[in-house]
Amino acid sequence: IVEALRTSAADNSSIVGPASTPSDWTSLEVPWVDHNQIHFGDASILRPTGLVTIAAAEGAAIVADDTGDGQGGETRQVSALYADGTTAVLGNGLVGIPLADPGGALAAWTTSIPAGDTTVNVFDTESREVIASTTVGADIRVLSVHGDTLLLGNLDDVELTWSPTSGGDPQPLSVARTVDDGFISDTAGDVAFATRLGASELVRADGTTVAAFDDSYFASISPSSRFVAMSGQRYIRVWDATADQEVQLGLPADQRGEATRWSPDGVLVVRTVPTETGTPIPPDTPVTYFACQVPSGACQSLPSVTESAGLADGLESSSAGQFATYVG
User: Fold this and answer.
1) 242 Cβ partners below 8 Å, 6+ apart?
2) Residue 221 burial by Cβ neighbours in a 10 Å radius (0-12, 13-18, 19+)
3) What pLDDT is stored for residue 267 in this prediction?
């Protein structure tokens, strides 16, 4: 359904983020971790031993941690850490990676039974309730959340969109694209990103190709739907879908971008490692974080909160794929 790509009908071309780049984690309104705690705003909780990833929506960080493998799959717990310091357990069992809209109130994850169907659960951080759920086929995952629209799918040929607040069932996503055998890894507003081994492209709902790339990337579209952060095996790229040009990030020459996260107002948080670091990235590799303004590309270092790439911080990295925002 091409119309699903037009969920952001307003012109977002003027949205470029705040006038100045925040220099601390709290003002960015994104979660961060150290060896002992997870932080969100002024709130914090103990860091779970099996921490997998942290998604972020307005007012809450959504935390997933491994609890064991006793049901024939990845057994996890999903919890919420609210900015006021309260917490809540949202789900347990065979739980997929939770994703959220950093500029909205919705988060979503899947639950499943061995060799059975998958249920998609949608949580509203404002009402603090699961507001919708729907059953889909096996192996379906949440690929992205933007506004009230979810992108669902797998690595094969299943791609669905669902607007849980509007009612109805998930519908097939139909986007013209030239990346054969690729899958849509993110879609928002009027753009979608398709990728496969060795090629990727950014397309519009009418099938127009915005940009094509001779490499595989996993993409994350900004809250404004204007910018696309792409994570590759060796570096990251940022594309301006309105200006149809690449955004040059002002990172130090001795650092290369390795993973990203968007803040609610469009600042791109970039995790870097030393330029000479190989792939896969060793767990003891020192990491640095930057807050980067787009489209200017100005980047400012953030206070160090982790010592190595072995800590899960929820930033999106191609080393583990779009579906699992592990670190390293």
Assistant:
1) 12, 13, 226
2) buried
3) 94
The DSSP bridge pattern shows strands 191-196 and 199-204 to be antiparallel
Q: What are phi and psi of 188, to 5 degrees?
A: -160, 145
Rounded Cα distance between 284 and 293, Å, is 28
Please name the residue that has the structure tokens 């590309």. 297
Q: What is residue 90's predicted lDDT score, i.e. its pLDDT?
A: 95
Give the pairing type, strands 129-136 and 118-124.
antiparallel
Q: How confident is the model at residue 60 (pLDDT cuts 50, 70, 90)?
A: very high
Residue ranges with strand state E in 165-275: 171-172, 183-188, 191-196, 199-204, 209-213, 218-221, 227-231, 236-240, 245-247, 255-262, 268-274
Beta bridge partners of 286: none
d(CA 75, CA 164) in angstroms, rounded, equals: 25
C-alpha 43/C-alpha 59 separation (Å) is 11
What does pTM read for this prediction?
0.82
- Model confidence at 263, pLDDT cuts 50, 70, 90, reads very high
**Residue 115 dihedral angles phi and psi, to the nearest 5°:** 60, 25
